[in-house]
Specification:
hydrolase; single chain; six-stranded parallel beta sheet; trehalose-phosphatase activity; Trehalose-phosphatase; binds 6-O-phosphono-alpha-D-glucopyranose; alpha/beta; EC 3.1.3.12
């Protein structure tokens, strides 16, 4: 257990995320510069960064490149170096071919490789050490997402003075699925190093608490559990035990829970309260509203409609090209409607933006081939000289173009098979300032719980999906406005600033409780 004498840094508020909040771009003179990344998280944390002395620890997106810390607008950025092998094993491997599919209902089969795990652990340690070097005495550190689940406990070992928060942006799976992970104990122990753990849905927080109970014997009383620091050597023991029992013991067992509890009672180790509950993330309502109000955005939206031949209905899908998004289901439903004659290419168009993502990961390569095959077949069958069935765009677009696309469209189709939240749905609703338009929303998104006024679908039920697409197209203006009003009220009352403020206030309260008198 580390003492309080380690090195300390200058920053009172430190965000730790896999990615830095900037993207590298090349300007007209051919110079490479940084631009603030779009997205709610970055705009929610910008004001917190400038009102505190804030730093952001993250990867800058290139392999084998060591960058010195630098400042960009309100951010002090601390780049973390990753070698090409680490990008393969930590980022593409363990983060995106083990944890990502495991946490998204095993839609793609997760792969378990010991070398990936070793690198995940080593890279998490590098992030934790970098945060520990940046944070001032008693600073607050907020760790983001599934790529960094071991950082909270590592940080607590390195710097027991810190207040540590963790937010999981993706779903947390049920015990029956999580239990497959050979390193399930280490991951839970890593997370429990935080004072406060935030999840998207109440169900995610519940899954996490149940996993802690069944796998570690850490029992929650409501949202709170008493956690005992695991000494470094216990990590090692568990590692050995894992090798012995690999794959022979898929389900948690009660004996090990009892043993864990007994071991804790026999040791004189620091304890703290960890709290786990839900904080559904949202969007920057002001930024979206402002962009949607600009004359130039409205002009661009009209232009998009014209370029598509002014169809009566424009359906829109906007996703990272990811198997969790249900893009194939969407194409199937839409293609059947064209085939049945319920839709025609003259009267309706479908725009599918599929932004490139994790392009070297096998399941993403395979998915791209499937989707592009489907789009090619549909367009081959239904296109005319002047109209196309699916306008497929394998690009990422800047924020202003995204908002113009939302404005140009009548129906946004979100058909995720599993999705932590889905912010595209919220952005579409907020950008429609006149309250027209329809949202078809998969019930398997975090957003579905918050937006009961959307037209909700089970994307696996293709007939139900087709009905919803037709229903959305035929909805009266009054019904559109009625539903939009309900959804807009919800999103305006809970924007991303509200999200970060609530989390950070609760984090400091949890810490205060922890610093209170020790129970005898
Ligand atoms: C999801 C994750 C984020 C991630 C983003 C883009 O939203 O929750 O942590 O940054 O996808 O994925 P990428 O792999 O490009 O960072």
């Amino acid at each position: 257990v580390a003492s309080e004498e380690g090195p300390v840094g200058d920053y009172d508020f430190v965000v730790v995320a896999n990615r830095l909040p900037v993207d590298r771009t090349v300007d007209e003179a051919g110079e490479s510069t940084w631009r603030r990344s779009p997205g709610g998280l970055v705009s929610a944390l910008a004001p917190v960064m400038s009102s505190h002395s804030g730093a952001w620890v993250g990867w800058h997106g290139a392999a084998d490149e060591e960058l010195e810390p630098f400042d960009h607008d309100v951010f002090h950025l601390v780049p973390v170096r990753l070698s090409e092998g680490e990008v393969r094993r930590y980022y593409e491997g363990f983060s995106n071919a083990t944890i990502w599919p495991l946490y998204h209902d095993v839609i793609a089969p997760p792969e378990f490789h010991r070398t990936w795990w070793d690198t995940y652990r080593a890279v998490n340690r590098r992030f934790a050490e970098s945060a520990a070097r940046s944070a001032s005495r008693n600073a607050t550190v907020w760790v983001q997402d599934y790529q960094l689940q071991l950082v909270p406990a590592m940080l607590r070992h390195l710097r027991p003075d810190l207040t540590i928060g963790f937010f999981d942006h993706i779903p947390f799976p049920p015990l029956e699925i999580f239990a497959q992970l050979p390193w399930r104990k280490q991951v839970l122990t890593g997370l429990l190093g935080a004072d406060l753990l935030g999840f998207q849905r109440p169900g995610d927080a519940q899954n996490f608490r149940r996993c802690c109970d069944q796998i570690l014997g850490v029992q929650f009383d409501g949202e709170r559990a008493e956690v005992t620091q695991t000494p470094q050597e216990q990590h090692e023991d568990e590692e050995n035990e894992r090798f012995r029992r690999a794959y022979t013991n898929a389900m948690p067992n009660v004996t090990s829970r009892r043993r864990a509890r007994k071991e804790r009672l026999n040791r004189d180790l620091p304890t703290w309260i960890a709290r786990a509950t839900s904080y559904p993330i949202s969007i920057d309502v002001e930024a979206v509203t402002e962009m949607a109000s600009l004359a130039s955005t409205k002009r661009r939206a009209r232009q998009i409609r014209e370029e598509l031949g002014n169809p009566k209905t424009i359906y829109l899908g906007v996703d990272r090209l990811d198997y969790t998004k249900g893009i194939r289901h969407r194409l199937k439903a839409y293609g059947e409607l064209l085939n049945d004659g319920d839709l025609t290419v003259e009267s309706s168009a479908m725009i599918q933006v599929a932004s490139p993502s994790r392009e070297r990961v096998a399941s993403y390569i395979e998915l791209r081939e499937q989707i592009e095959g489907m789009v090619g077949r549909l367009n081959g069958q239904f296109d005319t000289m002047s109209h196309t069935a699916i306008r497929y765009l394998h690009h990422g677009y800047p924020f202003e173009e995204m908002i113009a696309l939302y404005l140009a469209s009548d129906v946004l189709v979100v058909s995720s098979l599993r999705d932590g939240m889905n912010l595209v749905a919220k952005e579409f609703v907020v950008s429609h300032l006149d309250h027209t338009g329809a949202l078809v929303l998969s019930e398997f998104t975090g957003a579905a719980e918050q937006l009961p006024d959307a037209i909700q679908i089970n994307p696996h039920d293709i007939d139900g999906f087709k009905e919803a697409l037709l229903y959305a197209k035929n909805m009266t203006i009054e019904e559109q406005q009625d539903r939009m009003k309900g959804m807009r009220e919800q999103i305006f009352a809970h924007d991303v600033e509200d999200w970060s403020t609530r989390f950070l206030e609760d984090l400091s309260k949890t810490r205060e409780d922890n610093l209170g008198p020790e129970p005898s």
